[in-house]
Q: What sequence folds into this?
């Protein structure tokens, strides 16, 4: 028993995020930088900044789930779609953005809880396969219930114009980064405390964690629900930025991009999630420019795709330490 | 009743393809404990090559053979260049690398061939014969049954009757002991990946003419169906994967026939969830494959 407790103790001693800086301070500085940027950047860059904020919501939640709790989800693109469609339907009926975003988060959280309950019983490739199926299948729901979701065309989102004192892009950036910074603050506080310790313990050694009195299933479901809520917020923010939602905006590749973003930035770190979110916006933009320079439409989207794939494979092969902490006890017999 | 019979045969024909694809997944899972999430993309890549050859030479069969050979080479290449160097301490690593391959393959295919659907022609007529006034099977369905049946028989013979098959099984189940006994474990793994990828290419060639056509993401939903088939049968059981494939094919055919084609993907998801939560080792597996 003491051996087990020691194992848990040594593993739990791994450094929590942002030990040096208080998360609140980081968030306040971040907010100041964003506000400053929205007044200096040209409109298109401000729009891109807003997109980074929206991505940051989902990558931060996903990196907590995968990096700290060891559950790989390929279904977060579908969860984002849930949040986006909820916001679109709400806005077109009530046109109350603040409440709509909360409703989008709540609905996505409920969906995430259902998936999370199933996910808590699955490991490794089984979990990946199930969430992959969710990511592939969910967009097709829009075609099945086309009366509500209007099939492939999707829905447009009714929004009130922003206050007179700011441009649309500034307003978008403020809304998105407001959501992103609150998300990061909540996750940083959450993962520093007992819950973060529980998640790491479950990830590293389920048996030891269980012996130490941690409920495995509850920790895993909670982690999934938290990251689903983040994905719902991100989806709602994307609906606000694009002012429309359609199944084509949430393909399987989006879910794969999210995984790439958190792997490349360093799993389990919120700074990694920020790097990933920046890359998700910057790399397609660079690929777009290269494609335009080469005058090839085929190059545009696919160059980014290929590049993301290469980065993912190279990072995984060259720096397996990035994922090495993600040991999930699969049965010994089965492993090579 | 006529409709039911038609849907049954249609489902068996679809199921045969899923069975072949699921079999490819099971081959790699048994050998390396990796679910090859890139298998759909790999199959699409070889199909693109095959149809390029077929278009250039005017011969479908030359393209068909090229697809199988390309599958062998691609499978061996992926194992030699990438998968061999994956750190196996976490089962997630293999999954993430395979997903990276999906992105690379889809991106490269899109750059070369573009992201629009291209027609994938079938070598035989897909019009069903009338048997006693009921349209049941097409020539193409018979071709599918024959091809998948041949693959299943050949793989069974390989694994149960040849020394190479014995070595492959030994390398998969006890790599260290096999190495001590002189089995080239690495070579067997490469061979396993090559065979699996070739079987996947075959399944791709068989299924693409019945779907919308060639597209970099054309196999995504097929992959999900085949993964479900493999899980239904138990990831460790080749026979289970064949039976699972037929079951999934029948289910999809009935659901598309009676409830509409757009409901079919959701039915696959529902089946996957139910099986994973109730019988995660598969309906046919006897040994435990997974800790809960």
A:
């Amino acid at each position: 028993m003491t051996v087990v407790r020691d194992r848990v103790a040594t593993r739990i001693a791994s450094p929590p995020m942002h030990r040096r800086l208080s998360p609140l301070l980081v968030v306040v500085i971040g907010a100041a930088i964003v506000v400053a940027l929205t007044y200096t950047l040209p409109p298109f860059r401000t729009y891109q900044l807003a997109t980074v904020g929206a991505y940051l919501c989902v990558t931060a939640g996903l990196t907590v789930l995968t990096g700290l709790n060891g559950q790989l989800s390929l279904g977060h693109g579908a969860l984002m779609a849930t949040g986006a469609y909820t916001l679109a339907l709400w806005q077109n009926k009530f046109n109350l953005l603040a409440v709509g975003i909360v409703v989008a988060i709540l609905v996505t959280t409920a969906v995430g809880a259902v998936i999370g309950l199933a996910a808590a019983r699955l490991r490794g490739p089984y979990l990946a396969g199930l969430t992959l199926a969710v990511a592939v299948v969910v967009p097709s729901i829009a075609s099945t219930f086309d009366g509500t979701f209007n099939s492939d065309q999707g829905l447009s989102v009714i929004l009130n114009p922003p206050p007179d004192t700011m441009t649309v892009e500034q307003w978008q950036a403020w809304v998105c980064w407001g959501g992103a910074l609150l998300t990061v603050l909540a996750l940083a506080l959450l993962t520093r405390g007992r819950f973060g310790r529980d998640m790491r313990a479950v990830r590293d050694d389920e048996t030891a964690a269980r012996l130490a009195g941690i409920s495995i299933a509850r920790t895993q479901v909670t982690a999934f629900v938290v990251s689903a809520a983040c994905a719902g917020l991100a989806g709602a923010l994307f609906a606000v930025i694009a002012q429309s939602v359609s199944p084509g905006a949430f393909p399987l590749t989006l879910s794969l991009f999210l995984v790439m973003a958190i792997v490349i930035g360093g799993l389990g770190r919120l700074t990694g999630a920020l790097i990933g979110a920046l890359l998700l916006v910057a790399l397609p933009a660079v690929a777009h420019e290269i494609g335009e320079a080469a005058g090839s439409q085929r190059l545009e989207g696919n160059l980014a795709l290929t590049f993301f794939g290469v980065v993912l494979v190279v990072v995984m092969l060259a720096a397996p330490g990035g994922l090495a902490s993600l040991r999930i006890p699969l049965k010994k017999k089965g492993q090579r | 009743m006529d409709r039911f019979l038609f849907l049954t045969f249609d489902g068996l024909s679809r199921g045969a393809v899923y069975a072949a694809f699921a079999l490819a997944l099971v081959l790699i899972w048994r050998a390396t404990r990796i679910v090859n999430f890139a298998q759909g993309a790999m199959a699409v890549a070889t199909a693109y090559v095959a149809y390029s050859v077929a278009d250039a030479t005017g011969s479908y069969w030359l393209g068909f053979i090229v697809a199988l050979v390309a599958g062998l080479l691609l499978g061996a290449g992926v194992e030699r260049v990438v998968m061999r160097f994956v750190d196996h301490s976490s089962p997630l690593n293999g999954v993430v690398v395979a997903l990276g391959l999906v992105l690379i393959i889809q991106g490269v295919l899109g750059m070369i061939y573009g992201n629009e659907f291209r027609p994938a022609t079938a070598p035989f007529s897909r019009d069903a014969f009338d048997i006693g006034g009921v349209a049941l099977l097409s020539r193409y369905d018979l071709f599918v049954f024959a091809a998948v049946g041949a693959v299943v028989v050949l793989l069974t013979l390989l694994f149960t009757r040849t020394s190479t098959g014995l070595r492959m099984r030994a390398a998969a189940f006890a790599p260290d002991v096999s190495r001590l006994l002189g089995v080239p474990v690495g070579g067997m793994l490469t061979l396993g990946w090559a065979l699996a990828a070739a079987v996947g290419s075959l399944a791709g060639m068989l299924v693409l003419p019945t779907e919308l056509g060639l597209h970099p993401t054309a196999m995504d939903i097929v992959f999900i169906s085949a993964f479900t088939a493999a899980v239904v049968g138990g990831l460790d059981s080749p026979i289970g994967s064949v039976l699972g494939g037929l079951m999934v094919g029948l289910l999809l055919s009935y659901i598309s026939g009676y409830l509409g084609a757009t409901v079919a993907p959701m039915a696959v998801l529902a089946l996957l969830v139910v099986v994973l939560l109730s019988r995660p080792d598969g309906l046919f597996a006897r040994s435990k494959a997974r800790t809960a």
